[in-house]
Amino acid sequence: MSAPRTSLRLRVVPGATRPGVVGRHGDAWKVRVAAPAEAGKANAAVIALLAGALAVPRRRISLTSGHSSRDKVVALEGLSSEAANVLLAAAAETT
């Protein structure tokens, strides 16, 4: 049996003063990162933020869509969509 794999839709706000998971934004999760939207810095910050919030290694998170857009899709290995949603909801409550 293989490990679960899921995709998450994100709405990213780069250059934020308070980074973190904000909550739901339609069918996506809204996240804020302090890094600017230049040279992939915000994308790297999104991966790091998700790795911390979901307690998974960065190598298990990959950006699959939206490299230069605020709307992104990331793939997660090792988590079901239900587990990811529960963890992101908990992270949103603490910010």
Write the layout of secondary structure elements.
Elements: E1 5-13, E2 20-25, E3 28-32, H1 41-54, E4 61-65, E5 71-77, H2 81-94
Parallel strand pairs: 1-3
Antiparallel strand pairs: 1-5, 2-3, 4-5
Task: Tell me the series of helices and strands, N- to C-terminal.
Answer: EEEHEEH
What kind of sheet is the major sheet?
5 strands, mixed
DSSP summary: helix tally = 2
Structural class: alpha+beta
The CATH architecture can be given as 2-Layer Sandwich
How many domains? The number is 1
CATH class: Alpha Beta
Sum up the overall morphology in one term. globular
**What percentage of amino acids are in beta strands?**
25-35%
Overview of this protein structure:
The protein has two helices and five strands, in the order βββαββα. It is globular, with a radius of gyration of 12 Å. The protein is of the alpha+beta class and 95 residues long. The protein has one domain (5-94): Conserved Hypothetical Protein Mth637, Chain: A (2-Layer Sandwich). It starts with a strand and ends with a helix. The longest helix is centred in the middle third of the chain and has 14 residues, at 41-54. Helices cover 29% and strands 34% of the residues. The chain has a five-stranded mixed β-sheet, with helices on one face. Strand 4 and strand 5 form a beta hairpin.
